[in-house]
Amino acid sequence: SALRSRRAALGGGASVRDVVVQFAQYQSFREFSPVSVVAYARTLTRFQSWLGRPILTADHADIIAWINSLDVQPTTRSDYINRLSAFYQWAVREEYLLKNPTHRVDKPKVARRKPRPISEKDYEKALANAHDPRLYLWLVLGGKVGMRCVEIAGLRAEWLALEQPTPTVLIIGKGNKEREVPLHPDVLDALYSYGIPARGRFFSMCDGTPMSARRVSRIGSDHFDSLGIDATMHQLRHRFATRAYQGTRDLRLVQEMLGHADPATTALYTDVGADAAKSLLDAI
Q1: Which entry of 10, 97, 147, 213 is 20 to 30 Å from 61 by CA?
Q2: pLDDT for 106
Q3: Adjacency order of strands within the sheet including 160-161
Q4: Rounded Cα gap, residues 197 and 219, in angstroms
C-alpha cells in the first residue's frame, strides 16, 4: 500500500519531473560529475517525451521499442540503456516500483573501436598555427597532458605543482577521480606564456562565467577546420595516450595518466604502432 500511494503521488507531469530531480539529487550526493548528472537527466527526459506518459509506468516492451526507435550508434544505445537501468534501479530501491523494467534488456554488441590519435604532422601544423596563447595552451594540454575538454575548461592554478623536481598537474576527471600527470617542458612554456593566475580558474567566458567544455571543443575544432585538418580536440587525448604507451609499453601507467577505471578503456586510446607490429614479426 505504501508503494501504491507513492506511485499515485507521482501521477502528474510535474511529479514526474520531481522524481527525475530526486534522482539527480541522489547522483549529486554520490558525487557524480555535473556533466554526468545532466546527461542522465537528458536521457530520462527524452524517453519520457517519447513515452507520452509518466516514466514510472514504462514496461520492458516500452524500453525495447524506444531503444529500437533511436537512429544512433550502438555505443550511444548502450549508454542510454545504462542510464535508464540506473534510474530504474534507484526507483526500485526507493520503492517507487516493484521491479526494474530494464531487467533483461540486452545491450547492442559494440564493435571494438580503433584508437584515432591526431597524426603527428597535423598536430605539429595545428601547434605552429595556433597564434593565440590560450588556444596553444589548450592544444598542448590535450596532446601532451591528455586532458579532456571539460578538464581543460576547469583548470585551476591550485592544481599545478611547479616547484617540485618534476612539475605536475592534478586533474579532477570523470566521477571526481583524481590523477596527477607530469608536465612536458612544452606545457610549462605554454603555461608561462599564457600567464598563470595567482589562484582560481585559468579560463572564463567573456561575461566572466566559467569556460565551458563545449566552447573549448568548438574553438579547437574551428582551428582544425581552418587548417584543413580532419580531427577533434578529443583526438589529442588519443595522441597523448598513444605516445605514452609507445614510449613506455606500460598500459597500467597510461591507464593512470588517463584516469580510466578499466584498462580495457585505455586500450581504445592507444595505438601500438607499426614498430610494435614489426617487432612481433621479428620475434615470430
Answers
A1: 10
A2: 83
A3: 160-161, 168-172, 178-182
A4: 22
pTM: 0.65
DSSP assignment of 97-163: -SS-TTTT-PPPP-PPPPP-PPPHHHHHHHHHT--SHHHHHHHHHHHHH---HHHHHT-BGGGEE-S
Of the CA atoms within 13 Å of residue 116, those in its CB half-sphere come to 9
**What is the tens place of the pLDDT at every residue in 122-172?**
999 999 999 999 999 999 999 999 888 989 999 999 999 888 888 888 887
**Residue 178 phi, psi (nearest 5):** -100, 145
Q: What does the pLDDT read at residue 5?
A: 47
189/201 Cα distance (integer angstroms): 18
- Provide the sign of the torsion angle of the four alpha carbons 49, 51, 57, 60, taken in this order: negative
Neighbours of 246 (CB within 10 A): 15
pLDDT in tens, 186-235: 999 999 999 999 899 999 888 888 889 899 999 999 999 999 999 999 99
Distance CA 92, CA 23 (A): 12
Cβ atoms within 10 A of the Cβ of 195, count? 10
Long-range Cβ contacts of 244-250 (<8 Å, 24+ apart): 244/146, 244/270, 245/270, 245/271, 245/272, 246/270, 246/271, 246/272, 246/273, 246/275, 246/276
Specify the residue for cell string 534510474.
Answer: 87
Can you tell me whether residue 264 is helix, strand or coil?
helix
Extract the C-alpha cell encoding 33.
560529475
Closest residue by Cα to residue 213 from 140, 283, 278, 142: 142
Locate cell 580510466: which residue? 260
